[in-house]
Amino acid sequence: MTTPTSPPTDVELLDHVWGPRPGFIGWLGQCNHKAVGRRFIFTSFFFLLLGGLLALVMRTQLAFPDNDVVGPQGFNELFTMHGTIMMFLFVVPMLEGFTIYVAPLQLGARDMPMPRLNAFGYWTYVAGGIFLLSSAVAGQVPDSGWFAYVPLTRAEFSPGLNLDFWLLGVTMLEISGIVAAIEVVTLVARFRAPGMSLGRIPIFVWSSFVASVMILFAFPPLVAGTVLLELDRKLGTVFYDALAGGDPLLWQHLFWWFGHPEVYIQLIPALGMAAAIVTTACRRRMAGRTAVVASLVAIGILSFGLWVHHMYATGIPLLATSLFTAASFMIAIPSGVIVMSFIGTMWWGRIRWTTSMLYVVAFVFVFVAGGITGVMVAMVPFDWQAHDTYFVVAHFHYVLVGGSLFPILGGLHFWMPKLTGRILNERAGRWAFALNFVGFNLAFFPQHTLGLFGMPRRVWTYEEGLGWEGLNLLSTAGSYIMGVGMLIFTINMLVAHRPGAPLAPADPWGAESLEWATDSPAPNYNFRGSMSVESPEPLWDGRSELGGSDPSDDDPEWRQQLDRPTTGLRQGLATTLLDAEPDHIITLPGHSLWPLWLSIAISVTMTGVLIDSIGLTVVGVGAIAAAAATWLWPGVE
User: Fold this and answer.
1) What is the DSSP string of 145-164?
2) 355-377 and 390-400 are packed helices; what angle lies between their axes, rounded to 10 degrees?
3) What is the rounded distance in angstroms from the CA atom of residue 18 to the CA atom of residue 231?
């Protein structure tokens, strides 16, 4: 006799429908937002460590005058790749990874609106990173800075493939960023839990939305700029050739139209991460919450009026520079509002001093210091004196490390239970924090004085007797202390994920937003059961419905359809733009290898352009067309 088996439960059906396929091919084809978000986060963390190692080599070279650890060409390659890795391969992809993983959970959604496009963004990011790093294997490492100023980067001054690796790799990375931005804007607009009106969206999601809109305006001009420069190098066009009617300053305008908003594209999501940590650690709603959201929007708008801030020494008319000086001053106002809201929340709250909260306090201290020097270099007379000195190096590291790295490290401590189900060790975390904070300030604060003493940026060595020796040695010592702090942080992450390590509870911090209303890590389908959001803090208000209940015949038809996936389809709820009222059910794709194939096809095309192979380029373009057509063909996985 055979024993009759009971039919699968709703939870088992949901797990089956939303679960990944087995094996390595199943892993490659995952498109779920949690898998893609984790990949972005941990891949970009690897690039952080790589960029940090390059920085340590540079600081070792500058520790003593007339040092010979590396030569001038090697130093040019080091600072070019360090800046490129940190700007293009670490900060923005890391923040995109957090957004892709956390934002759907905070909004009560089951996935990103276009999962295959989401996976394509990751594979293109990886392909761009591999493309850039392969320049070392080819012996053609980019060497003209992460800003690639023309005319020095035209073919007659940089005849090798160094800059071609940089231009083509950065183009792929920008495509990845644009793809992620499209996903986030669509997610926030139409995929929110019922009742989550615009006024109830979490601050982190608001920050990610603002940054994504900024990406859609800032990244395409850089793609255009890199394409034009590659055409100049490969086909002999003259877009940047002044003698033939072009304009080398066109590159700077295109680059800094991207470059200065890019600073705030990195800062704004980090502010959202800090807001989530502060609210939870202080057990209090964010003070001036509406003003914080309005300030994020204001920063996003004003940041596009600052690009000439970087071009005061190029001969721009003084009347024009005064307008950009005013914009540079104005952006300090919404930034100050957000910092004061953080301080007010801490003042009136009961702070629990977790490691993540320590990083937020460090962020406030360091970012304010960087903002003050930013106002200084916004003034034309001072900028003329400090331009291209180590004062500027100190300024942008205070802004970028204080405004991005410290919140990211705090966010890793805060959201690691949700990402992996593990809690990082707090004692090791505090040691890492102390070394990172002390080491950072020891490394970069003396560089303000070095700049005022006349030390230029990007010099590979210096003579003895200029008065720079002690401060450079101090700066190098601080860099090594920070390196030890990052080593402890990395070991802490590895130890927390050792086999047999204890699992985290669903909400270890007593937080207020929806990602903590489900298990840690979240199940494949994120949420089930009836959900309704009544405030910006749904876990604290006592009124919101948080899901988890079994579906019943009294539930709306769309809820029963979502929680009883008898059709075997991955389905999510689309809601209205303003009030997040249920609108319709959308079917989402699952496993697919075509995003990976499309990224490989783009890499083949870029390689053909790199080595001047018409045949390989044509093959790559054909592969792109075939992969895109197959991807979009109805019914094809």
Assistant:
1) TTTT-TTTTSTTTS-SSHHH
2) 140
3) 45
223 CB-near residues (< 8 Å, 6+ apart)? 171, 174, 175, 178
Question: Position 50: which residue type?
Answer: L
3-state secondary structure of 631: helix
| Mean pLDDT of successive 10-residue stretches along the chain, which has 637 residues | 64 87 93 96 97 97 95 96 96 96 96 95 97 96 93 91 96 96 96 95 98 97 96 94 92 94 94 97 95 97 91 89 91 95 95 96 94 93 94 94 93 96 95 98 97 94 94 97 98 90 89 93 87 93 82 76 82 93 91 95 97 96 96 82
Q: Which structure tokens are listed for 210?
A: 């603002």
CA-based R_g, the chain, Å: 25
Strand partners, 573: 585
- Extract the tokens encoding 593: 């290898």
β-bridge pairing 545-546 and 570-575: unpaired
Sequence-distant contacts of 208-211: CB under 8 A, at least 24 apart: 208/95, 208/99, 208/103, 208/184, 208/269, 208/272, 209/184, 209/185, 210/268, 210/296, 210/297, 210/299, 210/300, 211/95, 211/181, 211/264, 211/265, 211/268, 211/269, 211/300
User: Using a CB cutoff of 8 Å and minimum separation of 24, what contacts does 559-564 make?
Assistant: 559/530, 561/585, 562/110, 562/528, 563/10, 563/14, 563/528, 563/529, 564/10, 564/13
Q: What is the DSSP annotation of 366-380?
A: HHHHHHHHHHHHTSH
Cβ atoms of 20 and 592 closer than 8 Å:
no
Angle at 501 between CA 498 and CA 507, to 5 degrees: 125
Please state the domain extents for the chain. 17-312+319-455+467-496, 594-632
In sequence order, what DSSP letters do the residues of 313-331 get, joined into one string?
GGT--HHHHHHHHHHHHHT
Q: Which fold has domain 17-312+319-455+467-496?
A: Cytochrome C Oxidase; Chain A (1.20.210)
Helical (H) or strand (E) element with 623: helix 614-632
Q: Which of 102, 201, 100 is nearest to 518 (CA)?
A: 102
- Token representation of residue 33: 């937002």
What are the backbone dihedrals phi and psi of residue 20, each rounded to the nearest 5 degrees, phi first? Answer: -75, 160
β-sheet bridge partners, residue 571? 587
**DSSP label at 195?**
T
Q: Which stretches within 421-504 are classed as H helix?
A: 426-452, 469-496
| Cα 531 from Cα 533, distance rounded (Å) | 7
